């Protein structure tokens, strides 16, 4: 499955946040035989639609979609020089599908900042600089060979052009993601073989003081630092406290700081989106479940997530939108109201589709 690597300078609250994340680990609860690695947190993506489906179908359990977060320790200035920790750090990032930077905004005299001052802007620059330098090194290694090859293999010229363009962006101190060279784009495809770090989607978690959670001016300012990447604002210590409470107590604590859901729930949602994922739903007496697919997946591809045989033998998908199902109250009533659609193999799945697949075995 796809993973999000958590990075950040020392003492910004990564461990505090990661520990709170693993308290919400859904693997342990739902998949008792899964191996759980110490630096991986499998986090459920909260989905109130599952509660509603479980109610309608009398489901014995609810299984949300999940996002995997990996705690990548050890960014330091000079990581891109690739010595010791630096090498391991870069290898770990290379294996991640998205990069989540934790940025310190909270003020606390008892917690030392590595650079001596609280400055989200310069922290972001410090981390991005290491990633940018690592990409420039990669490019400098392969470019001369590519240029040589392109003199004979004319089809390599587009690639050379893309690599030179990427080099120019990086030399301006910008990540390729912020310049719009994102995975899935044509330009990124030309760079694919280089496994560059900064084409990965980025998201930013600002670990803020509690009063900043509701400070819209402050948040707008931080958002502008990281756009087009998403910004999430949370207080890691508060998240750690929330993870220890039952639902009712947690809601009370959240309301006392002007919030409606835990920051980690927002992080799970945003992370899931950043990875280019979406869900569809199935429901029955055994379970109500959100299944993970890539955005743009077709009905047979979606069926394949449940079982490869479902994809191979795919005939049709009976699709009811979640809203229609809730409004009519049951599959039978949705059918008689003409709200159940039979979709074929070219159907592109939509968020909120409740599905039953028909297939040959
Ligand atoms: P890491 O090095 O990035 O993993 O940071 P830690 O999670 O170990 O946190 C470093 C220190 O900052 C610890 O003493 C935490 O208790 C403290 N800390 C973490 N988050 C917050 C926060 O939101 N507010 C305050 N005041 N302290 C925090």
UniProtKB/TrEMBL annotation:
Q: Which PROSITE patterns match?
A: G_OBG, TGS
Its domain of life reads: Bacteria
**What SUPFAM superfamilies does the record tag this protein with?**
P-loop containing nucleoside triphosphate hydrolases, TGS-like
User: What name does the UniProt record give this protein?
Assistant: Ribosome-binding ATPase YchF
UniProt lists the family membership as follows: Belongs to the TRAFAC class OBG-HflX-like GTPase superfamily. OBG GTPase family. YchF/OLA1 subfamily.
Q: Which InterPro entries match?
A: ATPase_YchF/OLA1, Beta-grasp_dom_sf, G_OBG, GTP-bd, P-loop_NTPase, TGS, TGS-like, TGS-like_dom_sf
Q: Which cofactor does it need?
A: Mg(2+)
User: Where is each OBG-type G domain found?
Assistant: 2-254
The organism encoding this protein is: Streptomyces himastatinicus ATCC 53653
ATP-binding: present as a keyword of the record?
Answer: yes
Which function does this protein serve? ATPase that binds to both the 70S ribosome and the 50S ribosomal subunit in a nucleotide-independent manner.
Q: Which PANTHER family match?
A: OBG GTPASE FAMILY, OBG-TYPE G DOMAIN-CONTAINING PROTEIN
**One GO CC annotation:** cytoplasm
Q: Where is the TGS domain?
A: 276-359
Q: List the CDD domains hit by this protein, alphabetically.
A: TGS_YchF_OLA1, YchF
